[in-house]
Amino acid sequence: MALFSNGKSEGSIDVAAEPITTFIAAGATLDGPFTAKESTRVDGIINGNVTIGGSLIIGQEAKIVGTVTAANLFLAGEIQGNVSVPQGKVEISDTGKLIGDLAAKTLVIDENAIFQGKCQMTTEKTSAELAKERAQAN
Asked: Which residues contact residue 113 at a Cβ distance below 8 angstroms, ignoring those fewer than 6 apart?
């Protein structure tokens, strides 16, 4: 099963490891903030901020207008708003469109994808950096 129904493979992240527990189908419109603890797929429209505890998959026909926060993001549709995935991975497919600022640890943008905004790459400190900070604190 392809993530975005465009014949491409699912990419490097194993979606089977995180089952999708919430699904907003094509044709559905949700007005207001939306929160889910587990991985979620959106094929409809959400007008409001979105907070997902797991991975968020945005289908080709889906659209979100609002701030998005998730553990990982796979974007084949459209987001108009800032995106925060500070410890995870953002993948924007060739049909994806992000109009807003982005904060992520890892970013993959396919050819022909659209991204208008600023990008801040977040980093985790390496064990050497942590050891150095601890040594300086003592």
From this structure: 92, 93, 94, 95, 96, 97, 98
User: Phi and psi dihedrals of 24, rounded to 5?
Assistant: -110, 110
In this predicted model, what pLDDT tens digit does every residue of 71-109 receive, in sequence order?
A: 999 999 999 999 999 999 999 999 999 999 999 999 999
What are residue 132's phi and psi, to 5 degrees? -65, -40
Tell me which residue of 39, 81, 78 sits closest to 60, measured CA to CA. 78
Q: Look up the pTM and report it.
A: 0.78
Let me know: does 65 contact 46? Beta carbons within 8 Å: yes
Query: Which residues neighbour 16 within 8 Å (Cβ) at sequence distance 6 or greater?
Result: none
Give the Cβ contact number of residue 5 at 10 Å: 13
Tokens found for residue 107: 């970013």
Instruction: Please name the amino acid found at residue 69.
Output: T
Phi and psi (nearest 5°) for 69? -130, 130
Half-sphere exposure of 138 (CA within 13 A, CB side): 5
Contact indicator for 54, 70 with CB cutoff of 8 Å: yes
Q: Which bin fits 129, alpha (ψ -120 to 50), beta or left (φ > 0)?
A: alpha
